[in-house]
Specification:
CATH architecture: Orthogonal Bundle
Number of domains: 1
CATH superfamily: MazG-like
Radius of gyration: 18 Å
Number of strands: 0
Helix content: over 70%
Mean pLDDT: 95
Bound molecules: magnesium ion
Shape: globular
Strand content: under 5%
Low-confidence stretches: none
Distance between the termini: 31 Å
CATH class: Mainly Alpha
Number of helices: 4
Largest sheet: none
Amino acid sequence: MNSKKSIEKVLLNVIEDNLNKVQQQFDDYQKKSFPKRSPEFFCLELNGEAGELANFEKKQWKGRHIPHENFSDEAADVLIALMNYCNARNIDLGKAVNNKIQKIEKKRKKLQSEGKEY
Ligand SMILES: [Mg+2]
């Protein structure tokens, strides 16, 4: 019997066991502490936060020093906005990520068998 799991199977298990709990806690926190907002609101917020993150990367790329805290702060904003978006849009993010990783792995393995990179 082979008990060694592939790294993607371990990842899928961790996501399945934990991501929906994290998403549920964000939903509880959001509902308790903030006014109800639409999926469109959170989608715009998500893209705004991703834009703020990208802007810091652009500034650093062009030679300015950007404190690491700025990147981590914006990355956190992106995650929070994504969680709120998924909750408002009734997306089970754990299930969606699992499905996507399985599709990526299928494609990656096919390309690998053809000697190509993903
Ligand atoms: Mg921000």
